[in-house]
Amino acid sequence: MRDIYLDFNASTPVAHEVADIMRRALETGHGNPSSGHWAGVPARQMVEHARTQVADPLGCAPQEIVFTSGGSEANNHALKGVFFASGKERPHFITSSAEHPAIVAPLRFLERLGAQVTWLPVDGTGMVDPDDLRRAITGDTVLVTIMHANNETGTIQPIAECAAIAREHGVRFHTDAAQSVGKIPTRVDELGVDLLTMAGHKFHAPKGVGALFIRDGLQLEPFIHGAGHESGRRAGTESAMLTAALGVAASLASDLGPMERVQVLRDRFWDALKNAFGDRVVLNGHPERRLPNTLNVAFVGRVGAEILVAMPEVAASTGSACHSGRDQLSPVLEAMGTEPQVGMGAIRFSLGRTTTANEIDHVVTRLRRVLS
Ligand SMILES: Cc1ncc(COP(=O)(O)O)c(C=O)c1O
């Protein structure tokens, strides 16, 4: 059997339509989008068309989109931008204890600069309790940041409910939606968020491009100071190639129809694992409120990394792919209270639009053999 890719939460292949527009942008979009002459105009048109395409799945206005180099930059921009614009000496942030390092690390940095951070607990399925959020808000709270869907378990947080609580208290809300765009609805008004992060390579754009939604009227300190690109919010000459890629990928991602098939396959995968391994396999994450493509399972008493080594044709992750290769229990599973002898056996299978039933059957057969 050829190689099987079940690591779509780590990154996705570039879609053909995306590669086509990138090639076209390279051939025709070489001008500087800020130049008023014949060479700059097509590049500017590509960038602005892409902005409307990116705004579409979020249901926001194009001018509320700032292009970034990816999810990490968008998160850094949101958190540091609010910190520096707050004017407070000890601004207070609230987050969850199951966030991606691209939220955890900037918050740790801001703590060194004087920020106070409350890390809300999560339950055994990885969910925050909105009542904990309500209790954590103080007069100094400037931002709540809670991820939309978890990259390891797929657990979907009650963002609309949490954002409503923040709004009642006049506090801004950011969500890291790097994993949810293209998998579940991500409309900013339905979620009630003021800031939202997207990362192109999670939905079939190339690596190195993403976006931050910034609600109109919200003043953030610019992330990169320089010339007035991106309406003065992020300096640096825009890449027609990367922004056009993100635009086309966002258009493709706004059709969530293919995810229904992915979810059927994912559920069939889980049923097959339960049949094969009974109590020796455990689901990590919320049984229902979970990304349709994500299956994080723990093989009790085993080591996930060793299982993957024994079936090298299968690309999947233990812990999170961004920091794979380490042998500790993932901080997300730890925050969920997962026992180490269960959590160490965790493997995250994340399916994509091109995953086939044959591939799933092959992995189940291989797991039976490896674990027998
Ligand atoms: C939830 C989440 N946030 C942020 C990121 C970082 O995105 P990027 O790799 O585009 O910087 C990732 C990537 O793994 C992610 O899963």
From TrEMBL:
Record-level Gene Ontology MF annotations: cysteine desulfurase activity; iron-sulfur cluster binding; metal ion binding
Keyword Membrane found: no
Cofactor(s) required, per the database record: pyridoxal 5'-phosphate
Keywords, sorted A to Z: Iron, Iron-sulfur, Metal-binding, Nitrogen fixation, Pyridoxal phosphate, Transferase
Residue ranges occupied by any Aminotransferase class V domain in the UniProt entry: 4-362
Record InterPro entries: Aminotrans_V_dom, Aminotrans_V_PyrdxlP_BS, Cysteine_dSase, PyrdxlP-dep_Trfase, PyrdxlP-dep_Trfase_major, PyrdxlP-dep_Trfase_small
Keyword match Repressor: no
Catalyzed chemical reaction(s): (sulfur carrier)-H + L-cysteine = (sulfur carrier)-SH + L-alanine
Gene3D superfamilies for this protein: 1.10.260.50, Aspartate Aminotransferase, domain 1, Type I PLP-dependent aspartate aminotransferase-like (Major domain)
Enzyme class: transferase
EC number: 2.8.1.7
Function of the protein: Catalyzes the removal of elemental sulfur atoms from cysteine to produce alanine. Seems to participate in the biosynthesis of the nitrogenase metalloclusters by providing the inorganic sulfur required for the Fe-S core formation.
Family: Belongs to the class-V pyridoxal-phosphate-dependent aminotransferase family. NifS/IscS subfamily.
Protein name: Cysteine desulfurase
Organism, scientific name: Roseovarius bejariae
